[in-house]
Specification:
Blueprint: H1 19-29, H2 38-51, E1 55-59, H3 62-72, E2 80-84, H4 89-96, E3 101-105, H5 119-122, E4 127-130, H6 142-152, E5 155-159, E6 167-168, E7 171-172, E8 179-183, E9 196-200, H7 206-213, H8 219-223, H9 243-253, H10 256-279, E10 299-302, H11 306-318, H12 334-339, E11 341-342, H13 347-355, E12 356-359, H14 367-381
Parallel strand pairs: 2-3, 2-4, 3-11, 4-5, 5-8
Antiparallel strand pairs: 1-9, 6-7, 8-9, 10-12
Helix pairs in contact: 1-9, 2-9, 3-4, 10-14
């Protein structure tokens, strides 16, 4: 069956600057295609400088960054890690791979982030860490989460896959906990096709993080001339991306602020056009007054029922508009039920996951396309 061509696609990968030029430079001039080349270093330095992070290690995915957290924190079988159920599978899978048990906590109805008020009840003698997920680039209540973690001796790893350059009380998300994990997947704001980064915010993890990322060897020290040979020192894996991937990413990072400003304007236009539908009681919109700076990562609406959502997605598809629902909650997935457990009620998670619709949003999206999507929504809810 041929892939449907949409009048307004859900996402559209883009080139914004010197992506192709830098790839050619990596191949022809630098002659460095594997990991840890000049463009990898450029990306890491850019992120360290612009986010204010002590050490950034570029990875081949956000999944890899999360797996590195599990290794760095010596997660062992039977350990428990607290996280929301309303998240992508790798938030949990990174720790399940080490034998840990994901303990799922319900989300807040306003931000769709983990409800910090419910975290203390999820803590047991086996709890080792907390993984807050900044859904849609909206910050979790980090002050409260860090206070809970400190009181119980837990580490905090921010899943900031959605959240590049979003802030919480003036600090960039991903730089607040012990670790931050970023994604540069093609559906994110700044992209490299596949890609991610581990933000190491605690100095005590920096040296070991470099070793784990290099298959458990001290190869990086060898390349810097600090040792006369490199050898196997620790567990680890091959987590570095190709320098061609980093070349594409660096060109995007050079324009990151413009990309995010453009996406925020699209979000504002959606809000302007759709707020009357919210006022009529037809839909719920994302939190409009966020206080903290957000990065325009996604735009969603919440319908009144699962049945209505199903009809709406099909209606938009017939009109040439690609809209999707989001996560199947992990606590109700086959693997989630096998490897994890919920802590208390998942009422908000279940309700939101049944009714959320993600609308098209991408860097090259025009205001005219936003208006087309909004007009079709008005058509669907006409008379409601």
């Amino acid at each position: 069956m041929a892939k449907q061509e949409y009048l307004v696609p859900f996402n559209k990968p883009f080139v914004v600057g010197k992506e192709l030029h830098y790839i050619a430079e990596a191949v022809i001039t630098n002659r460095h295609l594997s990991g840890d080349g000049p463009f990898t270093r450029n990306c890491e330095h850019w992120l360290e400088k612009n986010l204010g992070c002590p050490r950034v290690l570029l990875t081949h995915s956000c999944t890899a960054a999360l797996e590195m957290v599990a290794l760095l924190c010596d997660v062992k079988p039977g350990d428990e890690v607290i996280m929301p159920s309303f998240t992508f599978v790798t938030t949990a899978n990174a720790f399940v791979l080490r034998g840990a048990v994901p303990v799922f906590v319900d989300i807040r109805g306003d931000t769709l982030n983990i409800d910090e008020r419910l975290i203390p009840d999820a803590i047991t003698p086996r709890t080792r860490g907390i993984v807050p997920v900044h859904y849609a680039g909206v910050p979790c209540a980090m002050d409260e989460i860090l206070e809970i973690a400190e009181a119980h001796g837990l580490w905090v790893a921010e899943d900031a896959a959605h959240a590049l350059m979003s802030t919480y009380k003036g600090r960039f998300l991903g730089t607040i906990g012990d670790f931050g994990c970023l994604s540069f997947h093609e559906t994110k704001n700044v992209i490299s096709g596949e890609g991610g980064a581990l933000l190491v915010n605690s100095q005590r993890f920096v040296e070991r993080a470099a070793i784990l990322r290099e298959k458990g060897t001290n190869r990086k020290q060898f390349s810097r001339g600090e040792v006369d040979k490199y050898t196997w020192l620790d567990i680890g894996s091959s987590y570095a991306p190709s320098d061609m991937v980093a070349a594409f990413l660096y060109a995007q990072l050079e324009h990151a602020q413009r990309i995010i400003e453009t996406r925020c304007k699209i979000v504002s236009h959606y809000n302007h056009l759709l707020k009357p539908l919210q006022d009529k009681g037809c839909i719920e919109l994302p939190l409009l007054d966020r206080g903290d700076a957000c990065n325009g990562h996604m735009y969603f609406i919440i319908t009144r029922s699962l049945e209505e959502r199903t009809r709406l997605i099909e209606f938009l598809r017939e009109k040439g508009i690609s809209a999707i629902f989001h996560y199947i909650p992990l606590h109700s997935s086959p693997a989630g039920m096998k490897y994890g457990r919920p802590s208390g009620s998942m009422k908000v998670t279940d309700e939101v996951s049944d009714r959320i619709v993600r609308l098209p949003l991408f860097y090259e999206m025009t205001f005219e396309e936003v208006e087309v999507v909004s007009e079709r929504l008005w058509d669907f809810f006409h008379g409601s």
